[in-house]
Each structure stands twice: as structure tokens, then as C-alpha cells.
Design brief:
The protein has an eight-stranded mixed β-sheet. Strands 11-21-22-12-23 form a five-stranded antiparallel β-sheet. A four-stranded antiparallel β-sheet has the order 14-19-15-18. The longest helix is centred in the last third of the chain and has 26 residues. The protein is built from 21 helices and 23 strands. The protein is globular, with a radius of gyration of 28 Å. It is α+β, with helices and mostly antiparallel strands.
Length: 722
């Protein structure tokens, strides 16, 4: 028991009150005046960059043990950098956060205001908050949709006292009164004020996402893990008691059922959506290949990671592949409201610039093996390049020359977000089916697939920047095949590949083509949102856009260790790009499928292998263009290329020993440039030439691709590109 004097001291401390922290805006001003980044401040205080962001945005308050040191630092800065005009303050202009839509859309749901819009405030608190009313007040000057004041999602857990808690973005914690799964959904839609605004006025608001921990699963009558049979089916059986509870409460599930990612809804009434989605990490909802160890994070940290991703990219709708595809649809909804007719009524109509509502049958050359349009082919027929469009990323390597063997190092450079960069500016077909033509004149501005012979292109004599250059063509991969081998006759190519042949200075004469007259830059908005998400997250990790090449290389050293949570977000963003593009050509899965039969992905308007081909073609051609420019200017040639990584022999271990920079910080125009933006490059890894020779002797594979192992030097940790 405390003594009487100790109790009086505690009461006196309460009467005196705690020292007041500066306002969130003042915290940010003082830090910027001192020239300190958020990442550096987080490092000093032993916390995360996102936490510092939350303090400066008013989303959370610093708590012990960091509160007192942080306050002392602010007081010191305040003495050195006094505010110029403390009596007047103008709130900054509101900047609305962009938001999201849907993956497998429940039938009967139309875009409409969320039920949360009409709901009153819900019980909420912040850990350590002294004033519940203050905790429920949104930060001043922040543009928050009143329907979604508590953010896009919540991680639902059970506290030590048995109370169900919902951990939201920014450290917010809501008390959850629900005792059953149906009542949890009811609470979410009626009181929780979770969700996000639509990204496009013709789209749909993002439904609230609930992430259920193991403790929450037990509380609501769900298994902590799926059985082997349930895992293979990716859902609970329809006879499960939790599903029966939902049915009795008149809730429905989509065809996906109650699995790792589930959508629970009621058919729209009066134009109002009633839909919530579940994410269940212990059922493998958060694939470790995309989300690392996110599933093992404590609830508050998991809410921070997923919330940051949701705010910068999209509220997750499933895997990162699904979310990447859904982001495209959210930015270009298939329909929009028409102008009012003579009665004043609006109707749903096609939204120009979108892919429309209906799936599109591909021409035979673009169809993947086993597609119904190829059902007439013999069962084990292997299509040749003259029958099949094959636009894939590079996997090419060659032996080192004698001169390269004399150099001490092999340096790998990697293109940032290569597929995102190649999506930017890509002209792709939209909602109109392709048109078959014979002996067409090639048009670089028309997307399509072209049957043309490019075997005459000689890499020893090419145009670079409209000037002819003589190169050692044997030391370069062909730009026209993923293996880097020269084509030996006619083959199908996407428009960017054929256009590159003309750029190198050679004539082309297609014999036939499937062209798409209706076209546009469908992926530009998608690229911009993911680019901004990537660059912002890299900045949180201490790597910004304004760094010189030496500063960039220093900043990239151990950057993921500075904030492990932001590193998870970064990997998820990169995975969204790569897997989202791959989703355009999703192949058949499951043991029941047979070649020639349709599979579920074919019913999507976004099953478009032609768009994937354009993006990958641009990525491969972009790599080749940079390698040719570097070879023409310096005589340096790659020894291996894997997707977006190229390996060069060098006298030193740094990319600066490969890429020539002058005193003004400029390098070879059109070649590789160090930087953080998509399309620029970073250091992938360095090994010795001795390591390469020892690896070749050990593996005994003439086609061994050194770019696959350059990052760590370990043959067991294969690099698979982005």
C-alpha cells in the first residue's frame, strides 16, 4: 500500500496537470524547422515513422515512455525556432484521401451512401487517452467523410477482460458490443463508421473491412484454422453453424463463401448498400509472399499496416492480385449514370475509357493454352511463335568475356516497379473486340497483336537516339524474345515490340494482325496511385526523391530495417503491381478443369491477356533500350538479365562503377539512372567474378542466370523479379 505522503504527492500531481503538448501542426513545424525527417525522429525515439506521422496529424497522442523525451525535444526546438505569428492560424486546405470499390461484387448492390452515414457516434477510445470525448473527436482541418470517420478497416480482437475491441487506423480503439457474427456485421454497418469513399464518382464506396484475430474467431464461433479439406476448398462448409446464424439473420454470402476473404451482405434496398467484408489472417488471408509476417503482428500494428495500405492503395479485397485488379476497376468503373431523360430519370450506361461489363473473347494467338477458342487443336499440340503471342520478361544470360573475367566485381542493378513504370503511358485496347486484318501497315499507336518476321534486325548496327551505332550484338540479348535468342522467322508480337524494331532503324512488314481501334491509356491512373504509394512509403523508410546517387545508395543501405511495418506495406505495394498485371491472364486452377473448358476468370471483363502483353512488352523493351544506350555510350554490356535486374562486370562494387555520372549528376541519356521513382534503378547486389565462376562449376548449368542470385549470392534464394 502507498504511504499517505505518496498519495498526497499523486493528488498534487493530478491537480497540477500534465504539461501540454504543442498542437499536431506545431509539432510538424518544429521538426521541419530543425531539418529533421520523420524517419530520423522515429529512429531517435525508438518508434515507427507511421507513429510520428500520426502524432503530427492528430490521429494519436504520444504515450510513455516516449512522451516526456518527445516533449523535451519539442520544447528545445520551440526555443530555437519560435513561431512567427502565434496569434493567427489558418487551417490548411482540406485534402481528401482517395478511397475504393469491390472484387466479387454481391448481387443486387448498387453504389449508394453507406448506412454508417446516418449512424451516430459509437463508443470509442484510444489506449491511454484521458478524455473519451476528445478521443472521439476527429482531428481539426482533416477532410474526413463523416460516414467513415473511423477509417477503412478495423482489427477485431478480445481484450484481457473479455471485451471485444476493434483496433482502427491511427491508434483508435472501438468497444464492440456484438456477441455473434450477425450482430458484429450489424454493428459494423450501423455504428462503426468504417469504410472509404469511392475513387471515382461513378464507382462504389469501399465496404468496411473487419480483420478477425484468433481470439475474435473463437468469440464468434469460428475455427482458428481451417482443416485440410476446408483449406483446399478455401471456405467453411455451408453447413457450419456460423453460416446458419447469418442465414437466420437474413445475411448472405457471395459465391466465395465464408473463407479467408468473405463478403457478407443483404440485397440493396432503396439504393442502400449493406455489405461488410472479412479478412481472416489465420486462414492464410495474408499470403506471406505479399504480406511477410503481417499476420503475426499485434492487432494495433496490423491495423496500422493494413490501414496505411488501404489509404494509399485500396482497402484490400482479397489477395494483392485481386486488389490490384480491383484498383483498376475502381478508377475506371464499367458504367456511369446517363444524363436525365425526358422524365428526369437517369440510366446506367457504358463508361468511356473503361473495359466495360462484358468479358471479351481473345483471338487465338492471344489465348492461353487450354482456352476454349483453342479447343479444336490436338490435345498435345505445342504452338509455335507463329501461332502464339509470347510476351514475357527476360531470363537471359551469357558467359563472361575474357575482359569481363579480369574485372573483380559483378554488379546487379534493379529497375524500381518495372511493370508499373511500363504501364504508365501504355496504349491498350478498351471494350471493343479486336479486328482481324491482313497485310496491314504497321501503326505504333494502334494496340494489337502482329504476325511479323523480325529476324532481320541486326543488333550490331542500330539507331540510338536517331544516330546509327556499331555495337557488339553478340553481347546483347535480342529484344524480341524472353530468352534473348534471336527469332528465326515470323512470330506474334504486341505493338511495343514491333515499334521497337522500327526505332532501332529497321522496316517491318506484318502479314496479319488483330488490332484494337478503341484504345486509351487505361492504366495511367492506376500507375499514378501506386507510384505515389510507393514513393511515399519509401520516404517513410528514409529514401526520398531528392537524393544524389551517392546519397541514394547510402539511404538504401538497410532501409527496410528502419521501419519494419512500412517495409511490409512496401512489399505489398510492389506485389499489387506485379500480381495485378498477372491477373489479366489468370490461368485455370483446380483439379476439375479440363483443356478446352472455360474457367471462372474468363467471365471477367478484366481477363485481358492482350493488356498484360503490352505491359510486359514495354518492360522488356525498356530494359533493352537502356542496355543499348549504355553500350553505345560506354562499351559496357550486360552479362545476365532477369526480368527487371541486369548484371554488369565492373572494377568496383558499386552501381557508380557501372553507370557513368558527371560532376553535374547526369548520366547517359536514355540509359539507367539511380533513383527512387518507378523506372529508375537501385542497387540489387554485388558479387565477385570468382563467385560467378565457382557457382558455374558447382551448378554445372550453361544457362545459369547470375541475375537470379546476385542479391545474396546464395543459390537457394532465387530472385524472381519484382
Amino acid at each position: 500500500m502507498p504511504t499517505q505522503d505518496e498519495l498526497f504527492d499523486a493528488v498534487d500531481a493530478l491537480l497540477a496537470g500534465e504539461p501540454q503538448m504543442p498542437s499536431p501542426a506545431e509539432r510538424a513545424r518544429l521538426r521541419e524547422a530543425a531539418g529533421i525527417t520523420q524517419a530520423r525522429l522515429a529512429q531517435v525515439l525508438g518508434t515507427t515513422t507511421q507513429t510520428v506521422k500520426n502524432w503530427e496529424a492528430g490521429r494519436s497522442e504520444p504515450r510513455p515512455p516516449r512522451r516526456a523525451p518527445y516533449q523535451r525535444l519539442l520544447e528545445g526546438w520551440a526555443q530555437k525556432y519560435p513561431a512567427p505569428a502565434p496569434e493567427t492560424f489558418t487551417a490548411p486546405a482540406a485534402c481528401p484521401e482517395p478511397p475504393a470499390p469491390a472484387a466479387e461484387e454481391p448481387p443486387g448492390l448498387e453504389a449508394a451512401p453507406s448506412p454508417a452515414a446516418a449512424a451516430g457516434p459509437t463508443a470509442l477510445r484510444r489506449p491511454g487517452a484521458r478524455n473519451a470525448a476528445w478521443a472521439s473527436t476527429p482531428p481539426p482541418a482533416a477532410a474526413i467523410d463523416p460516414r467513415f470517420v473511423n477509417g477503412p478497416l478495423a482489427v477485431v480482437d478480445v481484450g484481457d477482460g473479455g471485451q471485444v475491441l476493434a483496433y482502427c487506423v491511427g491508434g483508435l480503439v472501438l468497444d464492440v458490443p456484438a456477441k455473434t457474427l450477425p450482430s458484429l456485421v450489424e454493428w459494423t454497418l450501423a455504428e462503426a463508421q468504417l469504410g472509404a469513399e469511392r475513387l471515382n464518382g461513378s464507382g462504389k464506396d469501399a465496404d468496411p473491412l473487419l480483420v478477425l484475430t484468433r481470439a475474435a474467431l473463437e468469440r464468434f464461433g469460428l475455427p482458428a484454422e481451417l482443416t485440410d479439406e476446408e483449406r483446399l476448398a478455401a471456405r467453411l462448409p455451408d453447413t457450419h453453424k456460423a453460416i446458419a446464424q447469418l442465414t437466420r439473420a437474413q445475411w448472405q454470402l457471395t459465391k466465395r463463401g465464408l473463407g479467408p476473404w468473405a463478403r457478407i451482405y443483404r440485397p440493396a434496398q432503396g439504393g442502400r448498400r449493406s455489405c461488410a467484408q472479412l479478412c481472416i489472417p489465420s486462414w492464410n488471408a495474408l499470403d506471406t509472399r505479399s504480406w511477410g509476417h503481417a499476420a503475426d503482428l499485434p492487432p494495433a500494428e496490423l491495423a496500422s499496416v493494413l490501414g496505411t495500405y488501404a489509404t494509399r492503395v485500396l482497402t484490400p479485397r482479397g489477395s494483392t492480385a485481386v486488389t490490384g485488379l480491383e484498383l483498376m476497376t475502381a478508377l475506371h468503373p464499367p458504367t456511369r449514370a446517363s444524363a436525365p431523360d425526358e422524365t428526369g430519370k437517369r440510366h446506367s450506361e457504358h463508361n468511356p475509357g473503361s473495359l466495360g461489363k462484358e468479358p471479351m473473347e481473345p483471338p487465338p494467338c492471344e489465348a492461353t493454352d487450354g482456352h476454349p477458342v483453342l479447343a479444336h487443336l490436338p490435345r498435345f499440340h505445342i504452338r509455335t511463335p507463329a501461332e502464339k503471342l509470347l510476351e514475357e520478361a527476360y531470363d537471359w544470360a551469357r558467359p563472361l568475356t575474357d575482359e569481363e573475367c579480369m574485372r573483380r566485381h559483378l554488379v546487379g542493378i534493379d529497375v524500381n516497379m518495372a511493370f508499373a513504370a511500363s504501364a504508365n503511358g501504355a496504349i491498350v485496347g478498351l471494350a471493343t473486340p479486336p479486328v482481324h486484318v491482313t497485310h496491314p501497315d504497321f501503326d505504333a499507336k494502334t494496340p494489337g497483336s502482329w504476325l511479323v518476321d523480325l529476324s532481320h534486325v541486326d543488333l550490331s548496327q542500330v539507331k540510338v537516339g536517331k544516330q546509327w551505332h556499331t555495337l557488339d550484338g553478340d553481347l546483347l540479348p535480342s529484344p524480341f524474345t524472353p530468352t534473348g535468342q534471336c527469332p528465326d522467322g515470323p512470330a506474334w508480337y504486341a505493338t511495343p515490340t514491333v515499334a521497337y524494331a522500327t526505332e532501332l532503324g529497321y522496316d517491318v512488314a506484318p502479314t496479319e494482325a488483330f488490332i484494337r481501334p478503341e484504345s486509351g491509356r487505361y492504366l495511367d491512373g492506376w500507375y499514378k496511385r501506386l507510384r505515389d504509394a510507393y514513393v511515399s512509403t519509401m520516404a517513410d523508410l528514409g529514401v526520398t526523391e531528392n537524393l544524389t546517387p551517392p546519397e541514394l545508395l547510402a539511404a538504401m543501405d538497410g532501409y527496410k530495417q528502419r521501419d519494419p511495418q512500412m517495409a511490409i506495406v512496401l512489399d505489398a505495394i510492389k506485389s499489387t503491381v506485379k500480381n495485378g498485371i498477372g491477373k489479366f491472364q489468370e490461368k485455370a486452377r483446380g483439379g476439375g478443369w479440363r483443356p478446352g473448358q472455360p474457367w471462372p476468370a474468363l467471365t471477367r471483363p478484366t481477363w485481358r491477356p492482350d493488356i498484360r502483353a503490352v505491359v510486359i512488352s514495354r518492360a522488356r523493351i525498356g530494359m533493352h533500350r537502356k542496355m543499348v544506350a549504355l553500350a553505345a555510350a560506354t562499351g559496357r554490356y550486360p552479362v545476365a538479365v532477369l526480368s527487371d535486374c541486369a548484371v554488369y562486370a565492373a572494377d568496383g562494387p558499386s552501381p557508380l562503377d557501372v553507370l557513368p555520372y558527371d560532376d553535374a549528376g547526369k548520366t547517359v541519356p536514355g540509359s539507367f539512372r539511380l533513383g527512387v521513382s518507378p523506372g529508375m534503378v537501385k542497387h540489387e547486389g554485388t558479387q565477385t567474378t570468382l563467385w560467378a565462376e565457382e557457382l558455374r562449376e558447382r551448378v554445372q548449368a550453361p544457362e545459369l542466370n547470375l541475375a537470379r542470385y546476385i542479391k545474396t549470392g546464395d543459390v537457394n534464394t532465387a530472385d524472381t523479379g519484382e
